[in-house]
Amino acid sequence: MKKINIKFLSLAISVIILSGCSDWLDLTPTDQVTDKIVWERESSVDLYVNGFYTYLHQYGQFGNQQFEGSLTESLTNTFKYGSYALGHKAGHPNNYVFNPEAVTTTSCFYSNWTDAYNKIRRMNEFLHSMELYSSFPESMNTRWEAQTRFFRAFIYFQLAKRFDGVILYTSLNEMQKDKARSSNEETWNLIEQDLNFAIENLPESWIPQEKGRVTKYAALAFKSRAMLYAERWQAAYDASNEVIESGLFSLTDNYADSWKGSNQESILEFKYSELGPNHTFDKDYVPLSDGYEFGGLGTPTQEMVESYEKADGTQMDWTPYYTENATRPPYEELEPRFKATVIFPGSTWKGNTMQNSVNGTYGTFMAYRAQPYTYGHTTTGYFLRKLMDETLIDIRGIPSTQTWVEIRYAEVLLNKAEAAFRLNKPDEAREAMNEVRERVNLPPKSSSGEQWFNDYRNERKVELAYEGHLFWDMRRWRLAHIEYNDYRCHGFRITGDNYEYIDVDYQDRKFSTRNYILPIPDAELANNSLIEQYDSWK
């Protein structure tokens, strides 16, 4: 991160559609321009700032920066990539989950060190050029700065949840010399300070032409998430409470609509279009019966299915289905979030009753390692439904355009519940979590202490399933080395009416405590004389 000389700022930005409404920001792509020219027109400055919004896509489930495009759920017991041949969304995630030593100082697919500092550099360049060249009113500068500092906090958060104190650059000049890493506390201080600046200076809403930009409440909602990671419980509690008390957001009536955007539950989102930007999520995960032979890359596990309660709030007894010659489990008895998240045997998908079986016409089973790649088959007996577009029929010809919702109201309620629990406010913790359960007509939980926290963990796992939270939650709770060690995932091999409970891994999954803190890359150590590797990686 030394001797960075930037002469041009690339503003080649595709049309992007942002936060929850039907209005599109009017964006015109701009080619490379010098930083001084940017400040000659308000529209050019807006375009520069709009480029930061693409970070929501890149670090979302439809982007590539969390785990090179693979879902981090594959590093938990909830998701299985069916390919053993190496590749992203294929054998690489399996290699990581079977072999913790795959994380090294030279390579880690869920490290983001280089990408994060490239983005931080760009945002600091913007703030630096504002000081030098802006002649706009201070109120306009402040709003641009508030958006930029929100995204700087967003990117530093991505670093903070992976590392233990990182290099903090808040100006362009700092990025042109060697610099030591700061402490964990100092890292979270900067994240909180940037978010506080955003909260204080962003509007509660924007005019229609500017809808889609980060608001005060989006910054508060994100702060409620970030401060849980920082274990700053009061800050997380206060931020989530302010969002809740605003009265501007609520849960959608139907859980299946909650992550689709443009509704009262969406607080911050990134939209797509056929012309671009768009994504390949459907191509990656559709069953072969959708007419695309390279989908089905990863599928939910039986462990995830068993996380769902029955519709009456009781636990289903799965032990009868672990025996030979078992029959079909009564999936219909499970609560609504299961049916909205998983394509299970007997469910309807795109007008067809899914079989998910050996030689099945609609959903075909393939044993793990039977072929190098999945080719649209399931290795667990299930397919992913959540986040998929059931209305997309031409998988080959039309790209995916479903919205990525970065923050939704249900998460804020759960963030408040966890913070309240840590602050010894059990009634408020139960109330916030039970509001989420009430949406799907589940009875309230009245547990307390450690049992409540276990209930909360499961509620968060189910409510936010496949939205990119679980792996990072288990890391911040320091539970991954306990629950994600020496275990295997399972599924069903379905042949006719016979359901055979099977091991879908063939070897134990593992998590090393060393990997709670990722190593500083060798390239950084070689180019920065003041940086020091973490003790656990020396």
Automatic annotation (TrEMBL):
Asked if Signal is a keyword of the record, the answer is: yes
List the subcellular locations.
Answer: Cell outer membrane
Name of one Pfam family that matches: SusD-like_3
Q: Which residues form the signal peptide?
A: 1-24
What this protein is called in its record is SusD family
Q: Which organism is it from?
A: Proteiniphilum saccharofermentans
Alphabetically sorted, this entry's keywords are: Cell outer membrane, Membrane, Signal
Q: InterPro entries this protein is in?
A: SusD-like_N (IPR033985), SusD_RagB_dom (IPR012944), TPR-like_helical_dom_sf (IPR011990)
As for family, the record states: Belongs to the SusD family.
Sequence ranges assigned to domain RagB/SusD in this UniProt record: 278-537
Fetch the SUPFAM superfamilies from UniProt: TPR-like
Q: Where is the SusD-like N-terminal domain positioned along the sequence?
A: 23-228
Lineage of the source organism?
Answer: Bacteria, Pseudomonadati, Bacteroidota, Bacteroidia, Bacteroidales
Task: Please give an example of a GO cellular component term from this record.
Answer: cell outer membrane
